[in-house]
């Protein structure tokens, strides 16, 4: 019967020998990372010092614990987070805004609960209770975001052999509370347009009047389904009003990293959502107006920008829209509401697949779940079909 093999990176029993000069020699057999067993030894004045020096040697050979390199089971969770963030930067696959979101979620949501633990102390039970408490105290969305970054970090610990398994994997599934996607009605859209057009334009209003960009941005969002950052990233060279219908290429977004200047990112939220969309006449008219404003500027310039020519930030547009609508008594409308409205209108006319294509989604499942308002009305043709079940009239007696 074959003997079980010693796992790589582990050692056998320690042997101690007192040498003629009085020092103590500690010796063991160590299975190296090439799979070969080797004898390793070290000496010291006492058994304890000899053992300590031997383990130092083993650590230098790749570690005598299950972990090696940057992380071991005795590493702190805080150290894991530092290594994880460095690894994210090394991969360089995340958008800067996503990288910042991951770090913020980790430091604000996860670190307070786990920063004092060693990796070997993090169990499925602790992780499961943490996620459930967060969902109860905060929200499903907050718990989901915390779960994501915690799983990513602990997954790195598994790849470094500092953990055998990712504790997040066996936690209970988060159940999303029922929610209903709400699109704007045509009457609500007209009320928003009226509120934006009249904002700070009444006679006697102090200060300069608005430059008109907010209402133009809303029309482009309604005409393209683009996210607010994508609309603000449209350049002169991305539009073509010489064709009918006019087209807009959605190929970038505006990013505002913490502590850094706002800039145009050369791809939308995802690289696959780059698309060329044909726009309705009301959006094409707004684009022509913006082209007239920036007619003397280079082709790479943005259609929408500040007075200094710098990119508008998404936060400023959201804040301004919220202020305008609040003054008009309209609450709960965000730029994303226009995107949901477009998806719902397209779904009613042609189904979810066309809506998903326009919104830049890879699957209509996302569009139906998050962007299209449910339609409670059943096709009225059912009434005509069910006439077949009508009771037959009794024959008239002669």
From TrEMBL:
BP GO annotations: DNA integration; DNA recombination
Pfam family name, one: Phage_integrase
Organism domain of life: Bacteria
Gene3D superfamilies: 1.10.150.130, Intergrase catalytic core
PROSITE patterns: CB, TYR_RECOMBINASE
Domain Core-binding (CB): 75-158
Entry's family note: Belongs to the 'phage' integrase family.
Stated name of the protein: Site-specific integrase
């Amino acid at each position: 019967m074959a003997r079980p093999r010693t796992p790589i990176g582990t050692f056998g029993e320690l042997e101690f020998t007192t040498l003629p000069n009085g020092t103590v020699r500690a010796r063991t057999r160590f299975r190296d990372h090439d799979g070969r067993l080797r004898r390793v030894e070290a000496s010291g004045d006492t058994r304890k010092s000899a053992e300590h020096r031997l383990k130092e040697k083993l650590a230098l050979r790749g570690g005598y614990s299950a972990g090696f390199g940057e992380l071991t089971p005795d590493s702190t969770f805080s150290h894991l987070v530092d290594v994880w963030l460095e690894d994210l930067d090394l991969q360089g696959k995340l958008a800067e805004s996503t990288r910042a979101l991951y770090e913020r979620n980790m430091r604000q949501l996860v670190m307070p609960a786990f920063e004092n633990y060693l990796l070997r102390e993090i169990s499925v039970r602790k992780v499961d209770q943490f996620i459930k408490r967060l969902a109860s105290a905060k929200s499903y969305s907050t718990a989901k975001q915390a779960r994501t970054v915690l799983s990513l970090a602990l997954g790195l610990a598994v790849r470094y052999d500092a953990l055998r398994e990712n504790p997040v994997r066996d936690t209970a599934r988060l159940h999303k509370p029922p929610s209903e996607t709400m699109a704007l009605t045509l009457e609500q859209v007209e009320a928003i347009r009226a509120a934006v057009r009249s904002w700070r334009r009444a006679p006697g209003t102090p200060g300069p009047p608005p430059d008109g960009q907010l209402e133009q941005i809303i029309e482009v969002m309604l005409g393209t389904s683009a996210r607010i950052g994508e609309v603000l990233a449209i350049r002169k060279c991305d539009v073509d009003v010489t064709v009918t219908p006019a087209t807009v290429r959605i190929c970038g977004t505006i990013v505002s990293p913490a502590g850094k200047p706002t800039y145009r990112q050369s791809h939308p939220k995802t690289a696959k959502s780059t698309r060329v969309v044909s726009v309705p006449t009301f959006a094409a008219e707004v684009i022509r107006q913006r082209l007239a404003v920036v007619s003397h500027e280079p082709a790479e310039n943005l259609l929408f920008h500040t007075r200094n020519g710098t990119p508008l930030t998404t936060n400023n547009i959201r804040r301004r829209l919220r202020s305008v609508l609040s003054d008009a008594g309209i609450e709960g409308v965000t730029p994303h509401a226009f995107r949901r409205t477009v998806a719902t209108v397209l779904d009613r006319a042609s189904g979810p697949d066309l809506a998903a294509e326009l919104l830049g989604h890879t699957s209509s499942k996302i569009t139906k779940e998050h962007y299209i308002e449910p339609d409670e009305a059943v096709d009225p043709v059912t009434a005509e079909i069910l006439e077949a079940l009508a009771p037959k009239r009794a024959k008239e007696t002669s």
